[in-house]
């Protein structure tokens, strides 16, 4: 029996996760899956001429990437927002979430925003808890602005 517990791609993923956590231990990396693809919408709105009538992207492929994203977050112990799954639970999601089968509508963008904000809150991050990197404009001395940044 082999002592290798992880397949090489999984092992490489873990090494990357460990290195990122060592370099930036206080940084939260939030992964976001790709959105679903509406293949019929892609056929109606092709980028280029499409004589074969096949979508250049498929929801199945987007789902595989979404699963990989969720799996990597799990391996790394980090948070993830699964937009691919979330959007498909919405009634008439292709019309509501996607303008051309690929790009997000205003509603689609709102869903992503709300999910990201909710996930960040679950991790204890909000506008109220963020550290300020720069001084407030009222605190900057107009005669010696650099002094305010030291």
TrEMBL record:
Database matches in InterPro entries: GDSL, Iah1-like, SGNH_hydro_sf
Family of this protein: Belongs to the 'GDSL' lipolytic enzyme family.
Record protein name field: GDSL esterase/lipase
PANTHER family: ISOAMYL ACETATE-HYDROLYZING ESTERASE 1 (PTHR14209), ISOAMYL ACETATE-HYDROLYZING ESTERASE 1 HOMOLOG (PTHR14209:SF19)
GO molecular function: hydrolase activity, acting on ester bonds
Classification via Pfam families: Lipase_GDSL (PF00657)
């Amino acid at each position: 029996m082999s002592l290798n517990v992880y397949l090489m791609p999984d092992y490489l993923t873990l090494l990357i996760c460990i290195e990122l956590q060592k370099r930036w231990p206080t940084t939260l990396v939030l992964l976001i899956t790709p959105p679903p693809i509406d293949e019929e919408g892609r056929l109606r709105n092709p980028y280029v001429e499409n004589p074969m009538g096949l979508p250049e992207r498929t929801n199945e492929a987007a789902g595989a990437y979404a699963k990989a994203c969720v799996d990597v977050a799990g391996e790394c112990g980090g948070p993830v927002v699964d937009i691919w799954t979330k959007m498909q639970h919405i009634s008439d999601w292709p019309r509501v979430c996607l303008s051309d089968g690929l790009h997000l509508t205003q509603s689609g963008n709102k869903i992503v925003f709300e999910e990201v904000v909710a996930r960040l809150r679950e991790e204890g991050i909000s506008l109220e808890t963020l550290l300020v990197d720069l001084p407030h404009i009222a605190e900057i001395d107009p005669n010696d602005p650099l002094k305010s940044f030291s």
